[in-house]
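Self-study notes.
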Amino acid sequence: MILVIDALNRHRFGSVLDDMYKLRARVFKDRMGWDVKVRNGREFDLFDDLDPAYLVALDDDYQVVGCNRMLQTTGPHMLADVFQDILCGEPPLRSATVWENTRFCIDTDRIKRKNDGRSVSYTACELMAGIAEYAYDSGISDVISVVDPAMDRILKRSDNAPCDYIGKTVQMGKTKALAALSDITEERINRIRAFAGITGNIFADENTVAEALAARGKGPDLSPDLTDYCDQQISDARTEKEREAALALQRTLRSAFSTQPNCDA
């Protein structure tokens, strides 16, 4: 199932976002060796501060097994501000109906450990279908994705081939990068679904997810910056009194996050 997290509901899913940042660190830093910044086991960059939309793949236990990030191209985004060499001097796309898709990854280890019939490829296709359906329902006409050649091959094998490419393929650190453009149409959505045998609604009900997380003691959590701050205060405590004060601050902040208004109410 796919959970959509954006600026309106992110206060409800801090623990999911935290697990997502940890997954990104394991995939992009540890497994792929990308030059990304990791703090306390979490990969988080300046584009995460711009209120993007996240599509997070969850398994039946509501554990994070995949994710991606979608950001409007009218403001800062990776192709314009990090991977501009791909554009060969051409201006980046700027349109309210063209969004950028980045940080696509799958927790292959967890999926293989669970052995519940869900394959890595199915999860990847479900996430790709989620991207296309979310975009289609939001009036987004095209999605630009900065991918490496391996991901480009996955798109093609999944009957989700890009309709075009922008700029050229360039070397970026240990890997190559290219910009793939996908038109968002019902035909594309149907192709992805047919390839993977996906039927029915793939989007999770956020109230159901929030209730399930709360039942497991994984309700709203802090942002990465506040998490880092609290962790540092606890680590720097020199006496038991200072440590208790730092823990009390952490509890107070978590309580404040959990009582933020629910826009669905």
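Second protein, same conventions, sequence then structure:
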Amino acid sequence: MRLGGLARDLQHTVRVMPKPFFALFLFILSATACASPAPVAPTASSNAPPNIVSNTRAGNNPTATVQPVTQSTNVPRPTDEPTIRPTNLSAATTIPSPTPIPAQLIQLMDDTCCASPGWYADSETILFIDKPNADAPTGMYSVHINEPMVSELWSERIAFYTRDFDYAQIPEQAGTRIIRLSDNKEMRVRNGGRTVQFSPDRTRILWTETRETFPLENRVTNVVLAPIDFDAGTVGQAERITQTLRGGASWLDNKRLLLNGRVSRESNQSRTYVYDLTTGAETEIFRAERSRLTTVSRDGSWIAYVIVNDKKTERNGLWVERADGTDEKKVELFGAAQWRDGSRLIVAPFEMGAPVSDTKQTHAFYEYDAERGEAKRLTPPSAPFKIASGDWSISPDGNKIVFVHAADNNLWLWKFSE
């Protein structure tokens, strides 16, 4: 699960997949250790970044004078963490200006640093998981887009964070612990340690409960809501809102949920539908035996989804549809997708025409306008890149994308030209 956090409210996917936190932690740590050859810099440009100070890893230039890393941005941090200090450095040095690269594609970190990047609310600061060197703690680090290669410890707490990094949650056996980062208030939800999703207005939480009965097709998923009041430090009475067969749920907006589940115990099809919390009305979006990547636009007005392995081949692919069940459109692109805003979808397919077996395949960013049904390419062929493990995130203002480059496991930034 991607960060930004490690759970982005979990609201952009219908499939709710709680996992043991420790296992996720080990997975993330293993991801940070991977390294591969650095990418080749794209075509030269006159807009190269200036000389910069690197957040040096162990073994880099051991004779250099130690220089603490500082950060000019004022990003609030959790208040109960250990004393925040600049990353312990074995050395620091001024790095010569790198080979000029296109102004829109910028390397933010080096030395195979990073995993699970997410954006702070200012759309200028990126938070990610790192352990810069043997003496530095594993934790959440920050880098400002105008100060590449300079990172700072943000928190030693690794948890599931909301998209805006305003709340963190830690599933525990005694119940899920929720922390409001602005004042460090905590409350515990007695829900068996299940991950929760916050409503957009942060007044309610959602989770699902599925009894592990057999056969599998008979399993019923309960969708549960509870009001929360952090000022009072209370969690209200949990209420089962509805049920679905072997399904999941996420927030569409403050008044609606996006649900999915099997059509019936006798059917192999699942249906995805909108559930109105006020009226109980259901609006079906689509049915399919196999679907992927169900994600909601930022204002809840559009839903994107992928159908795979359907008997009717024309149904396979990426689709968008309004949340009221109208205006269904097939997108003539196929790849990972995230919403830029209320109606524009960013798709990251492999370069068109490249064979799947080609190890030199690269990604490209395209923008699809759901209102107009039109697509355009954003990144030029002269700026090739490859995203590692689908690890990318669009900034809150919709104007930037951070991703982990598969060639070097470092953070890179794409800025939109408009």
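Instructor comment on the second fold: The longest strand covers residues 220-229.
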